[in-house]
Structure formats: C-alpha cells, structure tokens
Amino acid sequence: MDEEYDVIVLGTGLKECILSGLLSVDGLKVLHMDRNDYYGGESTSLNLIQLWKRFRGNDKPPAHLGSSRDYNVDMIPKFMMANGTLVRVLIHTDVTKYLYFKAVDGSYVFNKGKVHKVPATDMEALKSPLMGIFEKRRARKFFIYVQDYDEKDPKTHEGLDLTRVTTRELIAKYGLDDNTVDFIGHALALHRDDRYLNEPALDTVKRMKLYAESLARFQGGSPYIYPLYGLGELPQAFARLSAVYGGTYMLNKPECKVEFNEEGKVIGVTSEGETARCKKVVCDPSYLPNKVRKVGRVARAIAIMSHPIPNTNDSHSVQVILPQKQLGRKSDMYLFCCSYSHNVAPKGKFIAFVSTEAETDHPETELKPGIDLLGPVDEIFFDIYDRYEPVNEPSLDNCFISTSYDATTHFESTVMDVLNMYTLITGKVLDLSVDLSAASAAEE
Fold this sequence. Notes:
Blueprint: E1 4-10, H1 14-25, E2 30-33, E3 45-46, H2 48-56, E4 73-74, E5 80-81, H3 85-93, E6 101-103, E7 106-111, E8 114-117, H4 122-127, H5 133-148, H6 167-174, H7 178-188, H8 201-218, E9 224-227, H9 233-244, E10 248-250, E11 257-260, E12 266-271, E13 274-283, E14 292-305, E15 318-322, H10 324-327, E16 333-339, E17 350-357, H11 363-366, H12 368-371, E18 379-390, H13 394-397, E19 399-401, H14 412-426, H15 436-443
Parallel strand pairs: 1-2, 1-13, 2-10, 7-15, 13-19
Antiparallel strand pairs: 3-4, 5-9, 6-9, 7-8, 11-12, 12-13, 14-17, 14-18, 15-16, 16-17
Helix pairs in contact: 1-9, 1-14
C-alpha cells in the first residue's frame, strides 16, 4: 500500500470505473479503492436477497418470486443510446468484449393520459396517433428538416443559424402545437425540463439526430440498448480494463481518508493505518462530503411484476417518458422496465422503475402517475436519495468529484460528466475516434 500513484480512485460506481479504465489506458498508475466489498457503488445491481435486506430489513423474500440469484435489480436504472457517447466509449476502450448487449423493445411517451410510441422519423410521424392529420404534415416537414440538417453544409440550413436561433423559434417556423413540442423535446431530444426552448436549437437538433441514428443502428423498436445481466456488469468491465492496463484494485477498504498538505492539495489516501501517496484523487461525493453540496433528491419506486407494462405492445423492455407538463410538475418522470429477456429476472418476471426529481417528501404520492401505468404489481419498494455536485476547485486541491446520478433513465448526462472529468484530470479531450481494440491487436 505504501506506494506512489498518479491517481487514486475512490468508489467503484460506474463513473469512477470508466475513469479508472480510461486513465489506466493512458498509462497512468492507478490505485482503485472502495469501502464496499462489491463493485458498482450507488450504481450496483442487487439480487433478491440483497434487495430485501436493503428495503425490508430481512433476507427472506417470498418463495413465489423465484430464485434470488436470477435477479439483477439496478439501483440506478438507465438505458444506453445505441449510437450515444457511452457506446462510443465502450467501443473506444474495447470493453465491449466483456459485455453482451441487447436492444430495448420500445420507446414511449405519456400524452393526455395515454401511452404512445415515440415517432422518430417522418414516416413514423405520419402514422402516430399522437397528432391530428394537419399536425402530422407539419411534424413530418420538421422531421425531414432535422434528418437532412448537416452542420457543415449550409444548403441544409434553410437560412437558419441554429447556434443563434432558439428551439422555440425553430419550432414556431413549422407551426407545431404544444403537445408535439412536448414529445419532441422530452421523449426524442431527452431534455429534462423546458429550459431548452430558449436555448440555441442546434443542441436539440443534434439530440434528435442521435435518437434517429440510434434507432437505425439496431433496427429495434427503440434507440436504446441494455446489457444482459443488468448495469452492474458495466463497472466490472471497466475495472477489468483498468487491471489489464496495470491498475491496482482494493475492495473492502474501510474509511479511505483523503490526506492533504498544508496548501490544501491532496497527497494521498489512508486506510487501515497505511497511506498510499498520489498526485490526484477521483471519487464520488460520499468520499469528500465537505467538498460537495446537495442539489436535489431523486424519488424512485421499484416494482416486481408478472406482466409487461400495459399499452406498450407487450414489450419486454421499455422506456416511457412522462413529460413534466403532462403531470403539472417541474421535472419529467421516467418509467423503465426490463425483464427475463435481459437476464435480470426469472422467466415471466418484469422489473419496473419509476423515477423523478423529488419535489415533495412523499415519494409514494409523487410517483403515482407512473405507478398507475404499471398495472398490478407483485411487490413494490420506495426509495429517495440525495443528489450532490462538487463545489471544490480541482486546480487547487487536485480532487475530481463526480456528480450524483440524476432521475433520467438514459446515460447521456452521466457520460458527459465522465468526459468533462477526464478533461479536467488529464488536460485533454478524449479522442473517441481511436479504436483501442485495433491498436492492441496491432501490438500483438
């Protein structure tokens, strides 16, 4: 333990594991520690016995739910965009060889009390019951503009500078009604609230293009993919990557106290009376509570069911987004469902999550609109957790702290946090065009 490292990473949550993998690949000497005896930190997956211990205080789940080890229940449920940044990171690092992914069956949106499939292309817009006949034509024109839009080709811009024109102005040009704007902004562009309407339209157009490209990539019913056996597989895959490149792992290390010199710069981490020295520390908010502030809370329900979510075409895996306006809330609600088809539950069982940014202290009441869409449930658990973000200045203390996971059920915001942290730590932007698997094959 008494060695010198370039970076010590504390916590084995997904963000910390991706960073330890990327930094090890860069040739840095990395020590990765966790006070828990399992990988995944907050983003771990639990079997049935662990789930019962955590939420019911005993380890005796009812027998009718089947074998405990057939369950992998994500504590931070999220799908990945098939063509999104996280998938590009997975391919760049060759971590894909440790993981198996499967497309997610459906992508839906809640509108006027009903669940509808999200139309993503001009052809789907024409078929969607979300819109009347004239609105469909207007929406189709807008979708064609977005599909044809190419940042480098001014001919596709129709005279609009999308770095200046707001999303609200762009949408007004096509005369779309509020309902259409709602599903485009929240279920296609995956914005979490309505601030985007007053921001430059380029971001929304890029997000819509990502959705359509992701949908095309696997020819599935949604733009999302999800690993077999749940998200707990991801931190372990990046931990393996780090180990392949010389990273050292120590689980079950109590306390993990970060040590500073008199200038307030990090100099190492002490656990069990031994100190490992380092130049930089990367960690989740729980390791440096005096350098973070609380920014909100996530309310969540976890349900075990014996049927798919009604009105989703019997999808075995699905995301339903409930835009804030439809619920009279400040933030969206998300419904995530997966099942035995992704090996996260025994045959015939489905696991559904309803999550949102908490606006009250009563998760049961607050999550009701999402829970009402589930139909009968075998078991349901409620949870509420605080969200933190760093307030320190990394250039002064060399501490790089991740932000807590938000309520969304997709990974785009998570991976942006990772890439920003990577740039802060290394001073460079991660080049995702490089394919490390090709590089390592050439070396062999």
